[in-house]
Amino acid sequence: MSGTPAAARACILAAVLCAIWCTLPAFAPDTPVPWGTAVLLAALGLGCEAAGRRSPSGGPGPVAAGAFLPVLLAASFLLPPAAAALVAVGGSLAGRVEQPPYAARRIWRAAQLALTCAAASWAYAALGGPATLGGGGAAPDFPRALLPACAAALAFSLVLTALDAVVLAAAERRPVLRSVYELLPPALGPHLVHALAGLMTAVLWRSPYGPLSALLVLLPMYLSCWVFAQYHREQAAHRATIRALVHAVDIKDTYTRGHSERVGRASVLIARELGMDDRRVEGLRFAGILHDIGKLGVPTRVLRKDGPLTPEERRIMELHPEYGHEIVRGIGFLDEARDAILHHHERLDGSGYPYGLSGSRIPEFARVVAVADAFDAMTSTRSYRRARPVPAALAELKRCAGSQFDPRMVGALDRALRRHGWSEADTAVTADEPREPQGPHAPLESHGPRGPRGAAAGARRDAPPVPRARSAAPLSGPSRDRRR
Questions:
Q1: Residue 173, class by beta-carbon neighbours within 10 Å (0-12 exposed, 13-18 middle, 19+ buried)?
Q2: pLDDT digit string, tens, across residues 8-21
């Protein structure tokens, strides 16, 4: 735990002490605890987690974790809070941990799940849940049994999320309410499903058929978790592909490192403001991140040249959208993102490249990425100039709306920034070796297939700025260089 922040260590210690306090009543002489049930459930949970730990990285780890939760919730339904907390400890300590510090993460998870199971068991008992399970010749009381089970699932989600939010605040200084807002909604649905599986397990456990029949309930849950894990593995492979491609571009074009990720974030802001569904939002994020992947096909001497590009070099640079499209052509999951990679330098008035498309003929994804690309170029500090303030960048985008940019996309970005802002972390320096700007009035340059234009068309400038006295272009747009 030496690498864990002091505040996080204190948080873990407090959770461990609380978990120990919660389990102490189970060892009191006058407390009736069905130890046989507790041991069987603990062994089952331990087996689920141990199986996930033995699987290779990227393998069926999520399957084991998914099968473990119904066991914990069944324990919350069948056992008093102290014993339910004990059931969670063994499996939590045996589970696989992907990132260091391993010991701290295992201890935290064990304490966290012990407290969570105790809270779920307390909520379940408070609503009379144990009486609805049947057993001893009595039939289970449905649908009345669903209410305490759902309350237990809610308590499980709330406590788990609250503890996660607290440790994130201690370790990473993330706002607690923000973490709760981000973590709770996605957790509620799965926990309710796991609670239903746990309820059926508990009902069968109490039935004349006994624990063996109860275990059969977990088989379909295990299979569904396996399918879910397959989906997550596929998504992880997609992310790994994207990371590898972006890393390759960052190595080759070091002056704009981080630009792609910020364009992806700005594209997502626009997409959400436009009300796109989650699938298209994710596609636009990929489009923003990969919009400059075609630079892999541009000679390094052109990308890193100090000084203006020759006409021939400009023609080479203008091929990068087509190079990018060819690179990602066979990546099926990119879908609409491929169009954005190919057309993000088109202009609404038809004077863009590579095909001179205009108006609605330009794909929607490309129109979003074009705005996000230009915005980041203007608000990022480069080696040759300081970043523009966000209001100034938005004013420039609005000035060019209708001729270069889609006004709808510009308006969506404006509304999104008013709502969410654009943090300093999003406007970090993008050059490896910053150089002093050549005076506060050094002009920015724009570029296009027909020569300099005072629009925010250029998203990158790797060469030193042209002195103001030598340039007739107005002070507008992020760059006049053709390396965007």
A1: exposed
A2: 899 999 999 999 99
